[in-house]
Amino acid sequence: MNLPKLPDPDKSGFFYQVTSPGTGNNFKNPDSVLYNLTVKSLSTGAAYLQSPLLSNLGTFVGYTDQFYNSSLVTTSNPQGFYSIPAIRTALLALKPGGVARILLPSYLAFGRNGAGNIPSNEIVDLIVTTYPYQKQALLDDNRITTFLTSKGLTATKDPSGIYYIVNTLGTGEAVNGIGSTVNVKYTGRTLDGAVFDSSADGLSLTLSGLVSGWQIMIPKFKVGTKFRMILPSAYAYGRSGFNTISPNTSLDFDIEIVSVTN
Known about the structure:
With 262 residues, the chain is mainly beta. The protein has helices spanning 85-91, 136-151, 212-217, and strands at 15-20, 32-41, 47-50, 57-60, 66-68, 81-83, 99-104, 124-130, 156-157, 163-168, 181-190, 195-206, 226-231, 251-261. It has 3 helices and 14 strands.
């Protein structure tokens, strides 16, 4: 394999290559970085991990030597955190939008125990892809506007950053606020169209117990309204995610307000 590498004056034991430098200034430890990871076997090319394309990892550069993935939770590592300082080293050589490839010996990766579907003593080939945005809200907005354009949809942007489309404007009782309980029919999807939750028959929900995007948008409308809203991740499940929803994922909802108890 002919892989040009940057010098390793610290004798770190791993090799990395900046395959695309990005633009602007190099990342520094206090900077925010939004990025994705791909982990493959160096010997076979088998893919072990791939960040979901419609979400991303995000933290301060100085914290990126701690690597987490829920699929890597094991009895020997129940928290699913692994120390891989090579990620931070490579990021410090990049600018926003840059990409780096890292070749990691097993003792600097997942060791003799392996993790998830990564075997024991596996040398891994890791790709770090950063986004040109350093704020999650900007990346989410780009994803949402790209989604709307691809679907030929025209939406209104709320001051919060939430996009919405009113299909039927209701004339019934108003929703007073987040203390209200609403009966709604809804479908929730990720931006690739995958449905993660729905209620065709109607479900009663108290707004105060829901994600903030619902708390912001539902009180803007009256009973009988049917609308669609696309939530930036901060107004959905944020950096933590929830069940099958990955961290930093924007969500797409169809909602009908059936009734309200204020």
